[in-house]
Request: fold
Amino acid sequence: MVTGYAQLYVLAGCGAMLVNAGFAAAEDQEAVKKLTAVIGKLQPLHAKLGPPGPGDWLEAHPEPGQSFVQYVRSDPVTPKGKRHIIYIQPLGEFTQTEREIVNLTADFMGRYFNVPVKIEKDLPLSLVPASARRSEWGGQILTGYVLDKILKPRLPEDAAAYVAFTASDLWPGEGWNFVFGQASLQERVAVWSIYRNGNAEGKLEDFRLCLLRTMKIATHETGHMFGMEHCIAYECNMCGCNNREEADRRPIQLCPECVAKVWWAAGANPLPRYEKLASFCEKQGLTAEREFYQRLIEKLKE
Reply:
């Protein structure tokens, strides 16, 4: 079956299977207790997820969801210890505007996950041989080749995630038309494309839409790389999306259950994190996003 807009995740080894063991340390128990209280405080500001419509992700892919407590008990991969940096790998050529999209997305990811983000020197698209390309759909590169042959051999030892950004369209293999991105959770590598995120070279509102779409993909997929499963409870950035229209409906903000996973996994303080995100959105003219973050900030200050 040929699928249109879709996202593909490689789930092997992500540590998502729930275990019956308790929390490993007393500090974990205390952290979970405190963050659970914050979850309850923020819940009224987040919209519950309604029934899926025709063509929506959950209509085709029923999922059990994942609470904050289930996440902690799943022993997820986290950006702590030796592997604590997100590396961004530009792959191929970019216009000046496309480069700005990549740089801003890297900045946002650092604020979103409370980790250092480093941008590597460009790699040429010539590293992808003809056997890993196809001419359909305007020319595409095979995601599996990028993950296995380009990224894995270059994975930095201190990388929590190593992510390639490209302006080329992506194709994961037979049965698919294209994907926005693909991540190998076990190997901590991923590749995402800005090719289908809109016209970054157009008007200011077009640039902002392309930026917002790119940031959504980047943060959603990185969440998967840190063991976060799809959200089925709220309108949330971790909701699964089956097409562009559905992806545009979802917010870039995480719901209370999912954002607590980031707080816990990265050791982030909720209030400063929201303040950094609100500041970014204000500078980039993302008014609706800034206003929502500001409401969360005010709620936490009560």
Q: What stands out?
A: Residues 83 and 160 are 5 Å apart (CA to CA).
